[in-house]
């Protein structure tokens, strides 16, 4: 079956998906509560969309299509408030973070959905180890060719999003020494990593995808776990490298950073992407995962070694006119502060030092997610 045509959408529109943890408030471990949570949320109007994820200890929410930061953030806050209320009813905590700090993957239950059962049968224990939590950002593209160009032009900026969103330093009770350990689990899947270097939609759909489909390895775009992938049914590209932040304010800021970058790159004022740019891709990706904002980059064209933190700051300054035009200056200001103050991974490590236990980390993550909601006990 041929890949569907690329749906034209309004350029630079935004949508956000967040995978969220469901936590027992008695012991702070993950709890298999998604069936109950989804049933409860279905009884009343929900300000976005909510669906199950591969194991019963997680859910995924998604927003409507947005053009500006204020509308996106407003909806994410409304979604957050609805989730907090539902969780309070069920005595279940909801929080962000790319990994739960001490859950045991072997205890997870696969959600009873045919696709999840197929994935579990194919990938074995990797399916349960996929109880990790990411933010996906969709950016609208006016054509399939723009989508493929933007997908590859973003390759040099992927480490920025990893470092700014990093929130998964702990796995199964241990500090991994990574800022984003989550992406190590994604990389275990054979169809992960980067998309093939094809710059036009026809070449991708009728060439690469058609050949892959004939092998029987893939049936749809859902079978690819790439860092960035096209979504033809939505008319978007989907950035998938971000850990789920600890609060929705950072989630909105990251999405608008991608939007501003898209506006800048689509002007095609930078040298065009080349396949050789990917020679340094995995190294730069590793640096961002391992060291976060303290990592280094190798520029894919000049081969100059750069401080990741300084490269982000320089890019934020360069994007300011685009953010002003897109009404997202507040988003860039949030990321300026993040770059100077530290990521969520740094916050979680600090909480571990102060509280002295993995359970204390989860308690801190729960508090940060619900902060400033109507159910925030500090209000």
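Sequence proposed for the structure above (379 residues):
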């Amino acid at each position: 079956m041929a890949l569907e045509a690329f749906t034209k959408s309004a350029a630079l529109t935004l949508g956000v998906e967040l995978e969220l943890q469901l936590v027992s408030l008695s012991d702070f471990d993950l709890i298999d509560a998604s069936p109950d949570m989804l049933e409860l949320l279905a009884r009343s109007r929900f300000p976005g969309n909510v669906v199950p994820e591969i194991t019963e200890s997680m859910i995924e929410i998604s927003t409507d299509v947005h053009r500006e930061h204020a509308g996106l953030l407003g909806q994410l806050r409304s979604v957050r408030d609805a989730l907090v209320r539902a969780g309070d009813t069920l005595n279940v905590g909801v929080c962000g973070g790319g990994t739960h700090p001490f859950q045991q993957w072997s205890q997870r239950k696969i959600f009873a959905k045919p696709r999840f059962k197929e994935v579990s049968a194919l990938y074995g224990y990797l399916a349960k180890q996929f109880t990790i939590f990411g933010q996906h950002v969709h950016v609208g593209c006016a054509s399939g060719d723009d989508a493929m160009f933007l997908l590859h032009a973003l390759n040099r900026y992927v480490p920025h999003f990893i470092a700014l969103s990093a929130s998964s330093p702990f796995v199964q009770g241990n500090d991994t020494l990574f800022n984003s350990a989550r992406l190590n689990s994604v990389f275990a899947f054979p169809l992960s990593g980067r998309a093939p270097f094809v710059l036009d939609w026809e070449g991708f759909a009728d060439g690469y995808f058609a050949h892959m489909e004939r092998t029987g390895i893939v049936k749809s775009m859902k079978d690819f776990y790439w860092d960035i992938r096209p979504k033809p049914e939505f008319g978007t590209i989907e950035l998938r490298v971000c850990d789920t932040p600890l609060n929705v304010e950072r989630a909105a800021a990251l999405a608008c950073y991608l939007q501003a970058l898209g506006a800048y790159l689509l002007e095609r004022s930078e040298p065009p992407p080349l396949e050789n740019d990917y020679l340094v891709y995995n190294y730069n990706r590793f640096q961002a995962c391992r060291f976060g904002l303290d990592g280094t980059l190798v520029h894919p064209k000049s081969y100059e070694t750069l401080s990741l933190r300084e490269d982000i700051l320089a890019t934020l300054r360069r994007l300011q006119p685009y953010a002003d035009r897109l009404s997202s200056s507040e988003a860039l200001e949030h990321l300026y502060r993040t770059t100077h103050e530290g990521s969520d991974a740094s916050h979680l490590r600090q909480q571990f030092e102060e509280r002295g236990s993995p359970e204390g980390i989860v308690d801190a993550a729960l508090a940060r997610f619900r902060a400033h909601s109507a159910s925030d006990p500090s209000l």
